[in-house]
């Protein structure tokens, strides 16, 4: 039986669901695309006439939303009604790491996936293809299948479950979706696989669509992210060695990357990897390894995360040491709070731990990020933003520009590689800092050839390039 897909629904209007559905709507004008979320505010933000207020910032996204919204792309809170109308339902809900109970700290919390499956079971009519898009641990499709089978309201409704993990990287989502390196579709029902492949074939070459069994598809996603994270942890461990020996991390990265068996990508050392996937996926891998008694494999991957945490701690410790061993009552400017450039996402951002460490050391922080809202920053640091003596005295200030941020700062730490930081005139701006002043560049923003004069008490430290 071939499945005709006319209407699709996506449960979850977040960083994955929103951009993915926008591209599908844009490339498949004959399809009706409904994006639903339990969060009313998020849906109303997606429907905001002012496109700068969309809940997800991604270069190129607002133009697509403008083209498709309310034509064949709709954002709505009518979850049941939308599922009922749809031939294919994508699950793009969040799967955070479990905070308590069995597998706490490692296993994924599948409650949102479970709830979505229950919503589908009770609302779907006829045959529905269910596609898991969220990053999920291996065997989640089994959970979805079980819930669908035991909760379906109508005896006539049937389901096929597919896994099609999203490989988009935030900040580059539109390009990754328009021109994906590969599209993975895992499942048992070949007709359902074909139905999903036919959607992608509207803009993706046939050779790039990889059809696998469902478990390979799920495990490929976790493993790909773990491999990428491992590269970042590897290069970050070398950055520390460079600082001890006088080697230069950029030269070392270039030399490693020119070996085409290794390749140049993902060799930028920085304050550690962040984002919603890497840590969570490695933790998942660790959990699965332990479950199957593969303890050495689990320890191996645990160390990739440990190096990442160490890199963050090492940066905050270094700042304290350089500032004569104390940052109490000193003001430190934080440039960039998102986990990387071109996104307003702060999940697992290295800035969170680095800021927390510095606040605990007694510093005041001026924070500026071009796209992250102040309330989000405050929420990420909520446990540590008040002074202990005066409970209502905030230890952080959210700044509206770099100019405003630098005033009277003892040090600036560059934590995100936003383009606008590359054109800062440091010789001029640093004059309004308190001398001696420091700039800690953790993202290779300040280039050697800028020749910023440092005879006026300004010190510049670059990660992996300068001896400790
Ligand atoms: C990642 C995967 O790349 C993507 O395929 C998957 O679907 C989701 O997870 P994302 O989390 O958006 O995407 O970001 P990514 O570009 O992979 O960067 C992750 C982290 O690694 C960021 O904090 C980034 O700053 C850091 N990183 C990346 C480095 O520190 N150095 C590098 O060379 C590359
Ligand atoms: P991701 O990066 O994986 O897209 P987000 O947190 O940005 O993660 O988005 C997931 C979205 O899924 C959130 O907006 C959340 O409100 C939504 N969501 C979670 N559970 C449900 C549910 N049962 N029904 C509808 N939406 C849901």
What features would you describe in this structure?
By secondary structure, the protein is of the alpha/beta class. It is 40% helix and 14% strand. It has 16 helices and 14 strands. It has helices spanning 17-27, 40-46, 61-68, 79-85, 111-123, 140-151, 173-178, 190-200, 214-245, 249-257, 278-291, 295-322, 350-360, 374-380, 402-406, 426-429, and strands spanning 7-11, 32-36, 73-76, 88-91, 127-132, 158-163, 183-187, 209-212, 331-335, 364-368, 396-398, 411-414, 437-441, 458-462. Helix 13 links the parallel strand 9 and strand 10. The protein starts with 6 loop residues before the first strand and ends in a 6-residue tail after the last strand. Bound molecules: uridine-5'-diphosphate-xylopyranose (UDX) and adenosine-5'-diphosphate.
């Amino acid at each position: 039986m071939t499945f005709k897909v006319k209407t699709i629904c996506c449960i979850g209007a977040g960083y994955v669901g929103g951009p993915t559905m926008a591209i599908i709507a844009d490339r498949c004008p004959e399809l009706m695309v409904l994006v639903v979320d339990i969060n009313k505010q998020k849906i109303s933000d997606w429907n905001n006439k002012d496109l700068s207020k969309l809940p997800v910032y991604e270069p190129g996204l607002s133009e697509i939303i403008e083209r498709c919204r309310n034509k064949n792309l709709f954002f709505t809170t009518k979850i049941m009604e939308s599922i009922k109308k749809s031939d294919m339902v994508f699950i793009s809900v969040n799967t955070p790491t479990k905070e308590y109970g069995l597998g706490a700290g490692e296993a994924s919390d599948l409650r949102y996936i479970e709830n979505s499956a229950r919503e589908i079971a009770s609302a779907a009519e006829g045959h529905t293809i269910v596609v898991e898009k969220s990053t999920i641990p291996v065997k989640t499709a089994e959970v979805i299948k079980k819930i669908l089978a035991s909760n379906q309201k109508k005896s006539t409704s049937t389901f096929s479950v597919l896994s099609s993990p999203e490989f988009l990287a935030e900040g580059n989502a539109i390009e990754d979706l328009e021109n994906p390196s590969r599209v993975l579709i895992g499942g048992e029902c070949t007709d359902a696989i074909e139905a999903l492949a036919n959607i992608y074939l509207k803009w993706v070459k046939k050779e790039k669509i990889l059809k696998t069994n469902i478990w390979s598809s799920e495990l490929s996603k976790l493993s790909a992210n773990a491999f990428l994270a491992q590269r970042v942890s590897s290069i970050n461990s070398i950055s520390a060695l460079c600082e001890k020996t006088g080697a230069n991390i950029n030269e070392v990265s270039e030399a490693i990357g020119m070996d085409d068996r290794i390749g140049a990508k993902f060799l930028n050392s920085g304050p550690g990897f962040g984002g919603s996937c890497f840590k969570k996926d490695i933790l998942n891998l660790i959990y699965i390894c332990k479950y199957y008694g593969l303890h050495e494999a689990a320890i191996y991957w645990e160390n990739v995360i440990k190096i990442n945490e160490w890199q963050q701690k090492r940066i905050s410790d270094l700042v304290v040491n350089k500032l004569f061993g104390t940052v109490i009552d000193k003001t430190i400017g934080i440039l960039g709070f998102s986990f990387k450039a071109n996104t307003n996402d702060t999940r697992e951002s290295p800035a969170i731990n680095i800021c927390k460490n510095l606040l605990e050391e007694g510093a005041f922080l001026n924070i500026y990020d071009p796209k992250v809202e102040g309330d989000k920053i405050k929420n990420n640091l909520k446990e540590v933003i008040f002074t202990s003596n005066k409970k209502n005295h905030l230890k952080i200030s959210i700044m509206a520009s770099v100019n405003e941020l630098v005033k009277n700062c003892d040090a600036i730490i560059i934590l995100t590689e936003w383009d606008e930081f590359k054109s800062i005139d440091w010789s001029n701006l640093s004059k309004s800092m308190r001398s001696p002043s420091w700039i800690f560049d953790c993202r290779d923003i300040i280039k050697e050839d800028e020749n910023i004069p440092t005879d006026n008490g300004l010190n510049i430290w670059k990660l992996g390039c300068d001896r400790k």
